[in-house]
Amino acid sequence: NYxxxxxxxxxxxxxxxxxxxNELVHQQQIIEMLSRQKESCLQRMLRLEKGGFCFxxxxxxxxxxxxxxxxxxxxxxxxxxGILLYVLTLNFIGIIKLEKIKTERNLEEQIKxxxxxxxxxxxxxxxxxxxxxxxxxxxxxxYHQWWMVLTISILMLMAxxxxxxxxxxxxxxxxxxxxVNKELAELKEEHKE
Length: 193
What we know:
Blueprint: H1 2-70, H2 77-103, H3 107-142, H4 146-192
């Protein structure tokens, strides 16, 4: 009887060790999966930001070239140039923030940087739309040609629709990044215990 009890305890101990080892392997696989998901999310956001930066830089250079060749004859070129430089600067800061998130290994710092990126992203919208609205109001007040008003209106409608989808896309990526970082932090905390 004593031998059976001892064998049973030994078998139970071995089974318990295997279960603990499997839990560690499973937990490590989840950590790796979440890390890949975070990396993928960051890559998509960086691609979007860098693509936006290239587009804005191209637009800014086109306006600058038009100014140089037309000798300042473009309508409101200074305001347009200023708005583009402002958006270009916000976009560049966003790229720097995302690169910082990508290279940071401390999860608390990553979460802090994600929240700073989110704040910058929202700040860009809070300040950008009033600036563009004022610009358009002054533009439409001074220039009444129907073709110009129609063209600018169509371009603005396209820009607003594109911006709407971009806003929701980036907001979803920020939420995903925040969620994954928090889950990783919790798993790593459990792993320490």
